[in-house]
């Protein structure tokens, strides 16, 4: 399969496609998919902060300064999360797979396969950007603390975006199941346990703060 066929194949026939990638891993393709995801993640972070007008202050630091730091942090965080997250997730999946008798290679096989599983995240991020641009400009008052965060997370479009992100995570886990099964040469049960553990960890890291803000 060529690069385009692998992209479409990951969506339409992930089992067959991951077998093909495992036989002939091309790390530059995985890097390209992850790179595109990183670009859209940066745009998502930028647009997310641009749709909010910040007021108030924290310990004498004005809202405009805090907003600038938050935007820079969001953009830099997107870059670091994607670039560092890729090998970390691959490494964790590889180590966990060893407990089930894995016979795969971290590089380039698994690194390429896990890179391809970012395809759903690209689609989800594009949808999230579109939803963000539909939002009216909202006001976030730093002096209100968690109440301001709760109001932001309670926005209908924010809730819809969170649901879309959750669906994207499920889709990614579905692709990752085949990536781990065929890349590490595991049976379905072993691959399911490995991906299940990664999925639960992702939910806690990604949506934990949202749930906490809504409960408080």
TrEMBL record:
Pfam families: Yip1 (PF04893)
Record keywords: Membrane, Transmembrane, Transmembrane helix
Domain Yip1: 9-207
Transmembrane portions of the chain: 31-49, 69-101, 113-137, 157-180, 192-215
InterPro entries cross-referenced by the UniProt entry: Yip1_dom
Localization in the cell: Membrane
GO CC terms in record: membrane
The name this protein goes by in its record: Yip1 domain-containing protein
Natural source organism: Methanocella conradii (strain DSM 24694 / JCM 17849 / CGMCC 1.5162 / HZ254)
């Amino acid at each position: 399969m060529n690069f385009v066929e692998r992209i479409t194949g990951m969506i339409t026939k992930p089992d067959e496609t991951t077998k093909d990638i495992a036989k002939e891993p091309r790390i530059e393709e995985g890097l390209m998919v992850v790179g595109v995801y990183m670009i859209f993640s940066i745009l998502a972070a930028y647009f997310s902060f641009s749709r909010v007008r910040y007021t108030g202050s924290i310990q004498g630091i004005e809202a405009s300064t805090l907003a600038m730091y938050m935007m820079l942090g969001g953009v830099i965080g997107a870059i670091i999360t994607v670039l560092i997250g890729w090998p970390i997730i691959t490494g964790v999946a590889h180590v966990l797979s060893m407990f089930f008798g894995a016979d795969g290679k971290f590089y380039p096989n698994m690194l390429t396969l896990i890179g391809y599983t970012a395809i759903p995240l690209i689609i989800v991020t594009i949808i999230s950007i579109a939803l963000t641009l539909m939002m009216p400009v909202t006001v976030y008052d730093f002096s209100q603390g968690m109440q301001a965060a709760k109001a932001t997370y309670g926005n209908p479009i924010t809730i819809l975006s969170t649901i879309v992100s959750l669906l994207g995570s499920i889709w990614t886990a579905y692709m990752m199941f085949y990536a781990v099964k065929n890349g590490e040469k595991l049976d379905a049960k072993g691959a399911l346990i490995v991906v299940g553990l990664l999925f639960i960890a992702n939910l806690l890291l990604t949506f934990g703060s949202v749930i906490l803000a809504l409960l408080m």
